[in-house]
Every structure is written in structure tokens, then in C-alpha cells.
Amino acid sequence: MQEIEIKKFVIPQIEVNFEEVKAALLKGIKKYDIIVTQDTVKESKTMATELNKLSGKLDKVRKEKVAEMKQPIDDFTAKMNELKGICQDSRQKILAQVQKFEDEQVEACKDLLDKYLLRQYEKQEVTEEFRKSTIQDLAMLSNITTAGSLAKKARDEVEKRVAENKKLQDKVQMRLLSLENESYKAGLKEPITKESIGHFLYADDEEYLSRLQTLIQSELQRQERMQERIRQEEERKAQLEAQKQLQQEREAFEQRQEVQTKSAPAPEPQIDSDGLQVYRAVATFEFKAKAGIEKEKIANAIKDKLEKAGFTSLVGLEVM
Question: For 231, phi and psi rounded to 5 degrees?
């Protein structure tokens, strides 16, 4: 490429009678060195105006000469910027192609990562539920070789992340396998289900064990309340059944008594030598005893109590 060549370069130089003008100016300006009073204030303003005009004249000369010297500099700057623009335009075209190539390489890397991740899931037998690895951060130029294959460090990282998924999967499966045993061991009639621990199933060991024990205790308390309600309901039903059976037996007894009374002839009064007549008295007692006890035992117990109370003339006893 042709190098830039400065064919002519002249440093601007301006020569003026600076010292002469300065000396004359300092000498002439002395007449303006006055003290402003009531009598001289008008003249002072006129002097200030004259000095301002002189200053403006000097500044005008400066600006004109500077502009003359600056013109070739501006021309040179414009030309150099034009050359610079040509270079930058070409550079941007190259960079755009570089960016496009690198983006395509990154996309190719993503594709390789996705395929390798799937192979690792299958190889390490990770189920769909535990396939949680993210690999987008690994999609970079340094992770794809010039031959278009996945770099070893990227493969190693994918394998590591999949191994973490497998580790969690094994831990969760072990928890689920031991869940039924833990439930029965704690005294539960029905084991805790996966759905009941789903909100902390994947937690770390310390949190999992703590929350599991809390859940087991809660389930034990619920189970005890349920069993107590069942027991009370069974007792209530047993009492109702016993009352029903007792009523039926009472009604049957009364019917038998009524039949016997109607069918049997009136007995002859029995009067002993002392002139005392024998009477029969029928009484019905209700009492509670242990369920299932033999009626003969109940009858014997009643006989004992009657004899102790002085009733020795018992001739019959029926327990219903």
C-alpha cells in the first residue's frame, strides 16, 4: 500500500513589529491613567470607548492572519480524514464478516453441546425428570476446535453437570424407596406418598430429613385422631346394638310371660301351717357387664348378690 508522503511542510511564521507597537501603546496609554471623579467621569467613559476600539482593531488583525494560516491545516485535515474513512469502511466490512463467522461457530458449538448432552443423559441413564443441566454458557469459540468438534474441556464440563443430575436422581430414588419403610417404622398405617413430600423431595439432606420427620409426626397425630373417632363410633354402634338386643329380649320375655299367664290356670293359693300364703314376684333389672360374657356367669353373680342381701327364696332367674 502506498505510504503517505508529505511533499511540502512549512511551519507558519508571522513577523510583526510587536515590540515597537507595544512600546508605543504603553507610552500612549498613560494619558488614560486617570482618577475618575465627578468632573472627569464623562471623559473617562470616552477614554474607555477609545481603548475598546483599539483592542478590537488588534484582535481583528489576529483573527484574519490566524484564519489565513489555518486554511491549509483544515484542507490537510479533511484529506487525511477521507483516507482514514476509506480504511475504516474496509475495516468494518472485515469485522462484520468476522462477527458473522464467529456467530456461526457459536451456533455450531451450541448444536454440538446439545447433542453431546443428550448422549450423556442416555449414557448415564438420567430420566427426563432430572435432565436439568443448562449448557448455554459453554457455547463459546474456545469450546469448538478448528476441525469443528467439541473441545475436551467442554465435554468434561457437560459430563460433570450430567453426573450431578444423576447424583440427585439416585438420591431421590433412594428417598422414595425408603419412604414406605420409614412410614411403617414410625407407626403409620399407610405410607407417606411422593406427592406429600414433593415440595421438599429435592432439598439437601439436612432439610429433607427435618421436614420428613415433621410430616411423619403430623401424620401420626392425624392417624391417632382418626383411630379415636373410629373407636368412638364403634362403641356407639355397639351400645346401640346392645340396647336394641336388650329391648328385643325384654319384649320377648314379656310376651312369654303374657302367654304363660293367659294359658296357665290360676294356681291354687299355697298357705302354710302358720297361715302364710306364698306369692311370686317378678322383677326386671338392667345392668352393664363386659361384652361377650356368658349369661350363666351373670346369673350366678346375681344369685350371689341376692343371697348376700337375704333373698333365699329364688326359684328362677333368666338373663336376657
Answer: -60, -45
Amino acid (1-letter code) at residue 15? E
Pair 34, 40: CB distance under 8 Å: yes
What is the per-residue pLDDT for 9? 75
Q: Which residue has the cell 337375704?
A: 310
Give strand ranges (E) for 43-192. Answer: none
Residue 141 CA to residue 164 CA, distance in Å, equals 25
Packed helices 152-186 and 41-123: angle between N→C axes, nearest 10 degrees: 70
Expressed in angstroms, the distance from the first to the final Cα of the chain is: 129
Angstrom distance (rounded) from CA 50 to CA 57: 11
3-state helix, strand, coil in the chain (%, to 5): 70, 0, 30
Say how far residue 164 (Cα) sits from the centre of its chain.
Answer: 20
Cα distance between residue 22 and residue 32, in whole Å: 16
Whether residue 229 is predicted with pLDDT greater than 70 in this model: the reply is yes
The C-alpha cell 302354710 sits at 272
- Residue 19 scores a pLDDT above 90: no
What's the full length of the chain, in residues?
320
Secondary structure class of 150 (helix, strand, coil): strand
Q: Give the number of other Cβ atoms within 10 Å of residue 276's Cβ.
A: 9
Name every residue whose Cβ is closer than 8 Å to that of residue 176 and which is 6 or more positions away in sequence. 194, 201
Taking the whole predicted model, whether its pTM rises above 0.85 is answered as no
Give 14's contacts (C-beta < 8 A, 6+ positions apart). 65, 69
Percent share of the chain, pLDDT over 70: 90
